[in-house]
Input
Amino acid sequence: MPLARGAGTLSGMDFRFSPETEAWREELRAFLRQELPPDFEGDDDFFDNEEQVAFAKEFMKKLGARRWLAPAWPVEYGGMGKTPIEQMILNEELAYHRAPHGGRLFTIGITGPTILVHGTEEQKRRWLPEMARGEVWYCQGFSEPGSGSDLASLQTRAVRDGDEYVINGQKIWTSNAHVADKMLLLARTDPDVPKHRGISAFIVDMRSPGITVQGIPNIAYRRDFNQVFFENVRVPAENLLGGENQGWYVATTTLDFERSNIAAISGARRTTHELVRWAKERHNGRRPFDDPKVRHALADLTVDCEVGRLLAYRVAWLQSKGEIPNAEASMSKVFMAMLGIKVANVGVNLLGPFGMLTPGSKWAKLRGRVLTSYLLSHAGPIGGGTSEIQKNIIATRGLGLPRGD
Ligand SMILES: Cc1cc2nc3c(=O)[nH]c(=O)nc-3n(C[C@H](O)[C@H](O)[C@H](O)COP(=O)(O)OP(=O)(O)OC[C@H]3O[C@@H](n4cnc5c(N)ncnc54)[C@H](O)[C@@H]3O)c2cc1C
Output
C-alpha cells in the first residue's frame, strides 16, 4: 500500500544533480580539505574542552564569513537564497568530513527557520544575521523531566510582569546548553486552558541571571546534554516568538525543520567507507575482506547507506517544492536511527577486541570511533522524537490509519 503522498512523489523525482549543484559540492569539498587538518577526526558535537569549542567557534565564523552557514536563507538575513537541496549538500559534506557542528542543528537547522516563519521583521533582523555569521549558538529547551514525547504537558512557567516574563522551571536533555548563547524555550503561559493552547515560545539569553546549567554525563561518559534550571529568570516581552499562547504552533514548525537526517546518514556512510578500507588491508596476516561474511555485511551496509541517503534527499526535495515533509521525514528518522546502530554493530564485530578500545588507547583501531559510535548510536532512536513516535506519524499521517488509544 503506497503512502498517501508517496507514489506521486517518486514519479516526479529526478535523481541527478544539476552541474551547478555538483560545482557547489566540489567548492565545499575544496574548502573543507583546505580548512580541516588532514587527519581531522571531528568531534560529533562533543564540547567538553575549551580547545575544541574554540576551534568549532572559529570554524563556524569562517563558514559564516562566506555565508555558508545558512545558504538557503534569504540574503537580507545572512543567507544566499540557495535551495534546500543545496543546503542539504552543505550539511552532507560537513558531516562526511566530520567538520565541527558547533550547534548548527539547533541554531541554523531549527531555531533560525522557526524565526523565519514566526518572527516579526524586527526579530528576524535582530536574531538571524548573527546566527548566519556563526557568532551565536542556540540550544533547544523543550523536553522536561515529565514531558518528552508528550511535549505539550510541559510545566515550566512564564508569567508576564510588565515588559518582561518571569520564567521558573526545569528543562532536561538540553544538548549543548553549556556552550550555547541563547535558547529557544517553550514555557506555559496559561495553565487554565487545554495543554496545547497555553504554551509560548521565547528566545532566552543563556547568560540571564537565574539560569543554572548542569551537565549530564551520557553513555559514552561525555557531556553532550544538560539539565537547565530557571529561577525567576526575566525575559523581555519582545523576545516572545509567535505571540502569547501560540507556542505549540511554533514548536510544531520547529519539529518540522531539519528533518532530513542527512548529517547522521552521511556520518554512517563515512564510517562504512572506513570499515571497507580497513577490511581491504591486511591485519595480522589476514585480510578481513576475504571472508564472505565480512563482504556481505559491508555490502549490506552500503545498500542501507544509499537507501538512507535517498530518503533524506526526498525530504529536501519536498521542501524545495514548498511542501512540509511529515511521514517522509519520520521514515528518514526511523531509518537513520536503525542505520546508526547497524553500522556501529558491524564495526565492533569487524574490529573484534580492538573495537572495544576507547579513543584514548594507542591500540584502538580507527581511533576508537567505532566504540564511541556503538555507544552513542543508542541515542538515535530517542533524540528528536523517538522511533515509536515517528512510527505513529507514519501510520497516521502517512498511511491514514486511525490514531488508536
Ligand atoms: C541524545 C539526545 C539529545 C537530546 N537533546 C534534546 C535537546 O536538545 N532539547 C530537548 O528539548 N530535548 C532533547 N532530547 C530529549 C528527547 O527529545 C526526548 O528524550 C524524547 O522526546 C523522548 O522523551 P522522553 O525521554 O521523555 O521519553 P518518554 O516520552 O517518556 O518515552 C519513553 C518511552 O515510551 C515510548 N512512548 C511514549 N509515548 C508513546 C506513544 N504515544 N506511542 C508509543 N510509544 C510511546 C517512547 O517511544 C519511549 O520508548 C534529547 C534526547 C537525546 C537522547
